Amino acid sequence: MAEWLTDNGLLLGLALLDGLAYAALVFMVAVGLNMVFGVLRIVNVAHGSLFAIGAYTAASVGIFFASLGLPAWASYVALLLAAALVGGILGPLIERLILRRIYGQEEVLQLLVTFALFMILEDVQKLIWGVQPIMQDTPMKFLGTVEVPFGEDTIPFTAYQLFVLPGVAVATLAGLAWFLRRTLTGRVIVAVTTDKEAAMAMGIDAAKVTLLTFTFGAALAALGGALASPTTSLVPGIGAQTIVLSFAVVATAGLGQIEGAAISALMIGLGRSIAVYLAPEFEVVVPYIIMVAVLLVRPQGLFGVLETRRV
Amino acid sequence: MSATDRALAAPPRTMRLPEALLAVLGAAALVLVAFLAPWLKFVLTVALAKGIAVLGILLLLRAGQVSFGHSMFLAVGAYTVAFLAPAVPEALLLLPLGALLAGILGLVIGLFVVRYRDIFFGMLNLALSMVLYSLLEKLYALTKGTDGIRVSGLTFAGITPDRETQEWVMFGLALVLAIGFGLLVRAYLASPMGRALAGIKTRETRLEFMGVSARRVLLFAYVMSAVMGGVGGTLVAMTTRHVTPQLAYWTSSGELVFIAILGGAGSALGPFLGATAFELVRVYAAAAVADAWQMILGGVLLAVILFAPGGLWGMLTSRLKGRGA
Amino acid sequence: MSAAVHGGPQDRGANRPRQATPLLSARGLRLAFGGVKAADGIDLDVMPGEFLAIIGPNGAGKTTFINMSTGYLKPQDGTITYDGQPIIGLSPRAIVRRGIGRSFQLPQLFTEHTVLENAALAIAAHAGIWSPFTPLLRRGYHDQAMALLDRFGLGPVAQSRADALNEGARKLADIAMAVALQPRLVLMDEPTSGVAAAEKMGIVETLVRVLRDTGVTAVFVEHDMDVVARFADRVAVWSQGRIAALGPPQQVLNDPAVLRDVIGIEASPPSGAGH
């Protein structure tokens, strides 16, 4: 047993650290998806594409900054700039031009409209950035690695994944909680989420709230992508991968749950990384197994509220 | 009645005759095209195969449910052929086998997913299809991963036809099955169970208060749709002679739903109309702009939903109705 | 009879055999939602063949009683027997199959189906819905459904989509679907609410005629005292989860305490009462 631990303990430790960083990224995407669903009542299949485009844009801006001879810390500006650009441009564009036309329509059609958007954005992404892998890891290299103490040993891990990713995720969670509970705009969003008709009857401008929420959700997805970009090489298909994973996180947590999304992101992130070390063939399956298992026991998700039908 | 209501509503009774007529005309047109443009035979066969799978999607749409994971049943049918063809090369045996296995999987998964509705129904199907996808991709020793499996030589009723004949046999088989399942679905949708299925969409509680289990009604439709997915999958595998995990990926399921809406959910003809249009656009768009065919398809889908919510079938019938009025 | 009643035992069942056993019998039903007592010791017997009206202010627990009797809600305490058998804990489906039908305050019709299909589906549900490939509107079901709709005066709208009907026709169709299941007891939740005043009496007359013809026992929640006075054999007055009064309409509807506390009328009793 002791031998097994010395052999595998470090791997497990690495899995935990990996899982934490991974959960942070997944949370960023899932929480945006969840907020958008809360207000628009639309599950945005193209949400993953915003993640992907955010990632590619961050890499491009980072490479561009480097070509200008800007210092390495500027690559962090590139990450933020990319998120703001993608969220600020694509968000309003998609909401105003397309989603606005399908509010209140059948779910099937809403899903398919965002599926169409997904198809379009996938090709837009391929047309702009091609299909060759792109790698821009300046932000990660800039901070170097840290020796994380683990028992008697230490595990080398990048400071970026150890501090920046979880840090941003926690800040997002705390910031969102504060924003939604303490600011007027936040409370309006909550009001619209809870009861759209009542909120509109109170004179809330629903059009403005949906625009704001969608833009914000898009920016969160793009920020997630931007943050992910230094840790992996970018290839076509990351958007499709990301969206199904965030579906799993959101469904596990329960629709509309923000803190819940953080916890289920952790469960799924850690579960996946542990699987990477224990049974790599099943790595990709783990998030869905977790989701199915949770929904079997709690059909409304871990933290979801059961909606009762009125007779 | 909103535009989208119309998209998913049952067809008015007066359309029955044109529907039968159009089915005959459509089948004749397909045969004609296959004769005149032999290179399209392959595309049309795949379209018919997918159309059968989309018929299954249509059943669930009638209940107001959308499965974003239904291509898993298509993949089960396809991999059944790929795995078993070396041992059992007989197509006429593989076909019911693929359907049976898909049906069994549909029953097992169905027992679980029919307890859920709307987004959760869609997402659970998606998650389960992703489990199958991941297994197909990762269990390399068994499935050769993303490389996929080449389907070995097939026999038809014991005969090994030459390539040209086999293409015709596959085309004919797909057409016959398409017509058969089309008729079956039409009969089912008009039956008490089919009409109860449509009731799930508008008033599920009433079903319960009539003493009818809505879950059982939905389960029957789900298994039926899984079987049709399996049949579509076996046909796809026999036609393309190559299967990959991509068949089970969620985007493939999205395509099936896409085709259902493109064709229009108002008629059992819609799926075939949609599948033919989809495959033709895909082939020609891919030839014209290799990197942007998906974008073109996405644009078509957006345009259909925003401007022609009844799908191609809806456009066709409103044209006919306009003339009749 | 253990119900808290205003009148004496001789009041009950004026036009029924005295020794008949109740069709539905509730004892000590209790159910609270948070602090609100929707049922606070309900004892009630529904006798075969009678028309029992339930009246009382909103929130008194009238619909809760129907929901408990049809398996939609489970009481925290108490028993309900139907035809001598306990039914608490059975699913709504199982209860329907035993012969208790219900209609809804908000009619529960298949909105995208025609009225005829709605009725035919209910008939099929009773006869056995599990035939996947023969048409719903094959001759038998079609004719039975038309006959049913004709009895409710809905023949002319048989081919209309259910969501195109006016409220009165919707209510009737809703009840027709319950009757199609050939129940022995029908529980109707506000069969005339939302119906135009002019239509109201016509609807109730149709209802009573059909139900009497089929010998169905009926319990209905009603706010219109004229309707109650004309059609109920007995009236149960609900108040804060309890039965405050129970008896023939001429007695209950003339009880000053009921008038004041429950119905909220200070003036004279409704015009129909007393005859």
UniProtKB/TrEMBL annotation, chain A:
Annotated TM spans: 20-43, 50-70, 76-99, 111-131, 159-180, 209-228, 234-255, 262-279, 285-306
Any one GO molecular-function label of the UniProt entry: transmembrane transporter activity
Gene Ontology terms: biological process: amino acid transport
Membrane topology annotation: Multi-pass membrane protein
CDD domains linked: TM_PBP1_LivH_like (cd06582)
Superkingdom of this protein's organism: Bacteria
Entry keywords, A to Z: Amino-acid transport, Cell membrane, Membrane, Transmembrane, Transmembrane helix, Transport
GO cellular component: plasma membrane
Family per record: Belongs to the binding-protein-dependent transport system permease family. LivHM subfamily.
Protein name: Branched-chain amino acid ABC transporter permease
Source organism (scientific name): Dankookia rubra
UniProtKB/TrEMBL annotation, chain C:
CDD domains for the chain: ABC_Mj1267_LivG_branched
GO cellular component, one term: plasma membrane
GO molecular function, one term: ATP binding
Pfam families from the UniProt entry: ABC_tran
Matches recorded under InterPro entries: AAA+_ATPase (IPR003593), ABC_AA/LPS_Transport (IPR051120), ABC_transporter-like_ATP-bd (IPR003439), P-loop_NTPase (IPR027417)
ABC transporter domain residues: 24-265
Keywords: ATP-binding, Nucleotide-binding, Transport
PANTHER family: CONSERVED COMPONENT OF ABC TRANSPORTER FOR NATURAL AMINO ACIDS (PTHR45772:SF9), CONSERVED COMPONENT OF ABC TRANSPORTER FOR NATURAL AMINO ACIDS-RELATED (PTHR45772)
Name of protein: ABC transporter ATP-binding protein
Native organism: Dankookia rubra
